[in-house]
Design goal:
The protein is α+β, with helices and mostly antiparallel strands. The protein has 3 helices and 9 strands, in the order αβββββββββαα. The strands form 2 sheets. The chain has a 6-stranded antiparallel β-sheet with strand order 4-5-6-3-8-9. A 3-stranded antiparallel β-sheet has the order 1-2-7. The longest helix is centred in the N-terminal third of the chain and has 39 residues. It starts with a helix and ends with a helix.
Amino acid sequence: MRQKQEGKKQIYKIANWISLLILLVFYLAPIAQVGAVTQENRGLTINSAKVGDNSKEIKISANVVNNDAESTTFSVTIDPENSLTKEESATLKDTAGNEIGTYEVSGIQIAFTILPKVQASIDLSLALASDDLKEITLINDGKATTISLATSESSETTTTSKITTTTTSSTEEKNEPDTSPSKVK
């Protein structure tokens, strides 16, 4: 009988340890999950960057996410330095026109401060500091987005010269009817 009681005590101890381990896992699991979710729910992702309608500006389209309870700052590095006109604490609005934070353009970066609990798309136009630039590179989270400024000008020139060439060849065809069969008769 004594052995039965000792056996029951051992089973009871093992059951207690298993219960404690289960409670510990349930206690620590949400902490690990919160850490993982926080990393995924914050950031700025550049979707596109191109020369604007006015060749003296660039347009940036991006998604911003800040599910934190506090404002968060994200920065995008500009290369070459001082290629964009400096701006201090300008209001940042999403594509629907709602204020979602501020941005500041300095010599080497664009700093975005996003309000808490924001998930939005933005379209931002930034003025170029010089007309002599060939390209600008925006670096965000290790990903580089390069905007070629010279390409847009040369494509406009090529289009214009094609139109001119077509007009010239049409004019030449009108001046050559001397060898047509109607004049031979």
